[in-house]
Amino acid sequence: MNPQTPTILPPSIESVVETALYADDLDAAERFYVDILGLALIGKEAGRHVFFRVGVGSVLLIFRPQSTLDGGSGFPPHGAQSPGHFALGIKADSLDSWRQYLRHKGVTIEKEISWPRGGKSIYFRDPAGNLAELLTPGLWGTPAGW
Amino acid sequence: MNPQTPTILPPSIESVVETALYADDLDAAERFYVDILGLALIGKEAGRHVFFRVGVGSVLLIFRPQSTLDGGSGFPPHGAQSPGHFALGIKADSLDSWRQYLRHKGVTIEKEISWPRGGKSIYFRDPAGNLAELLTPGLWGTPAGW
User: Fold this and answer.
1) What pLDDT is stored for residue B57 in this prediction?
2) Long-range contacts of range A8-12, CB-CB < 8 Å, 24 or more positions apart?
3) Is A96 an interface residue toward B (CB < 8 Å)?
4) pLDDT of residue A2
5) Which of these, B75, B41, B76, lies nearest to B60 by C-alpha position?
6) Which of A34, A73, B69, B85 has the largest count of CB atoms under 10 Å?
7) Segments of chain B with pLDDT less than 70
């Protein structure tokens, strides 16, 4: 490498702050994420989106793709129809409570996995078919414990 | 409400741990997220996925939807073709460095937004067309500062 053209390294990234999913029925999404999963509603625009806070530093965005794909709002277009996927971190000792709670709410658990490295996951669907996962610490070996 | 049938509240959720995006070309995705954005590669299966750690507690998953939609692996099916969206949190004082760095790497910034509540965002695309955002603190008012 030419010492006169040093490599420029990227500045740091702290975390994934926003995760986007897509749903045609935003009212059903709001009921699911607030009334069942217990997330805090932090933004809403009829026909376009519902936004939720997760824990102290994550934000879950649910968009109606017909609205966000046209780019008419001046916001760069994005959007998908097929089922997305995401995982929410839960405390290790809350997995049994979550399993019982979801059953009580009529949410079908589609799959359970115990990971070789540690951590367990349960999978279920939101009303739009997105694949939600609840995950206990240990799978990834991140410094934060996940 | 009947006091003999108490409401069962959901156990807590700590954070969004995994965020999934989709890309047909996983090699291009790996080059972009490792060589340009500087993320750490933490998992890889040829033709199916590349996984990255972000900061101390977030994981970004890039799946090839042709592989994950068929469910043949025993993992519940998911996957999308259209462009998804996500936001990565950066330090407030690194936004100028990021802008300069992306320009140096030939990444086109598609949009910049200064949010009324605080925080600034820059938007650009990954090789699959997913809409990436770099976000400084202040937009959402989360306890962690985002």
Assistant:
1) 96
2) A8/B101, A8/B104, A9/B38, A10/B36, A10/B37, A10/B38, A10/B98, A10/B101, A11/B90, A11/B91, A11/B94, A11/B97, A11/B98, A11/B101, A12/B38, A12/B55, A12/B90, A12/B91, A12/B94
3) no
4) 54
5) B41
6) B85
7) 1-6
Q: What is the value of pTM for the model shown? A: 0.94
Strand-pair partners of B88: A16, B134
Q: What is the DSSP string of A49-100?
A: EEEEEETTTEEEEEE-HHHHSS-TTSSPP----S--EEEEE--GGGHHHHHH
- The alpha carbon of residue B12 is apart from the nearest alpha carbon of chain A, in Å, by 7
CB–CB contact B142 A63 (8 Å): no
Q: Give the A window 42-71 contacts with B, CB below 8 Å.
A: 42, 53-61, 63, 65, 68-69
Q: What is the 3-state secondary structure (H, E, C) of chain B?
A: CCCCCCCCCCCCCCEEEEEEEECCCHHHHHHHHHHHCCCEEEEEECCCEEEEEECCCEEEEEECHHHHCCCCCCCCCCCCCCCCEEEEECCHHHHHHHHHHHHHCCCCCCEEEECCCCCEEEEEECCCCCEEEEECCCCCCCCCCC
